[in-house]
From TrEMBL:
It comes from the Bacteria. Residues 98-234 form the L,D-TPase catalytic domain. GO terms for molecular function: glycosyltransferase activity; peptidoglycan L,D-transpeptidase activity. Pfam families: YkuD. This is Lipoprotein-anchoring transpeptidase ErfK/SrfK. Coiled coil: none annotated. It comes from Camelimonas lactis. Signal peptide: none annotated.
Length: 236
């Protein structure tokens, strides 16, 4: 649930320098966790092709992204279980290459490749009572999107009403650097795959059904995901 202190922190963050941003990100990400409802340098990093990524390699893959509209700080990789680092894995599926498969029970998101492998990303997922499963597709995508709390959230948590007309994109915005909006039958589901700046959330169930990847992973996935891409959310 969003607290008054968290909303105050979100407002104050707009006046912080980049060096001061990271300590407050956990509170700012709480907005998304309570709602119903991320190339360049990363291309040099690619995906690990073995079963292990060293701490040094992880620090490079999840390093700062200064060329972004809002420069993204490096991830403190010591706060992420190494099993959630991005890597290429063997993955047997009948789904076509390019399909995104969300496995909330294991806290992974897979992007199916064309050689019997998948790019695997660690994720945060919906908490108890907010999980869902089924087929969807990417209906639209956005960089540094405006976040607007759904009416259902405002009713449940009135303190979010101050953002009823939207919170502009930025480091303090819950959707982060990149967002994939999930649709079914032409309608927005209110669920997204978004960029999280909270490393400690990866591998946990904390959202209201949305799926979060570390910002660097989300930028990597976003660049390879066109609109209309199929998304399969497995049962937890």
């Amino acid at each position: 649930m969003i607290t008054d202190r968290e909303i105050t922190a979100a407002d104050a963050a707009r006046n912080e320098s980049l060096a001061d941003v990271r300590p407050g990100l956990l509170h700012r990400r709480a907005f998304l966790f309570g709602s119903a409802a991320g190339l360049g340098a990363l291309g040099l990093a690619g995906c690990a092709t073995s079963d292990h990524m060293s701490h040094a390699e992880a620090a490079r893959v999840y390093g700062a992204v200064p060329q972004e509209k809002f420069p993204i700080p490096a991830v403190d990789v010591s706060k992420v279980d190494p099993k959630y680092y991005r890597r290429t894995v063997r993955y047997e599926t009948k789904e076509a290459p390019g399909t995104i498969i969300v496995d909330p029970g294991s806290y992974y998101v897979y992007r199916v490749e064309d050689d019997g492998t998948a790019t695997r990303y660690g994720a945060n997922v919906g908490r108890d009572g907010f999980r869902w499963s089924g087929d969807a597709y990417v209906g639209r995508k956005a960089e540094w999107a405006t976040w607007t709390p759904p009416k259902e959230m405002i009713k449940r948590q009135p303190e979010a009403a101050k953002y009823a007309r939207g919170m502009p994109g930025g480091l303090d915005n819950p959707l982060g650097a990149r967002t994939l909006y999930l649709y079914q039958n032409g309608a927005y589901t209110l669920y997204t795959i978004y960029a999280s700046s909270d490393p400690e959330s990866i591998g946990t169930g904390v959202t209201s059904g949305c799926v979060g990847l570390l910002s660097q992973d989300m930028i990597h996935l976003y660049a390879r995901t066109p609109v209309k891409t199929k998304v399969v959310v497995l049962p937890a």
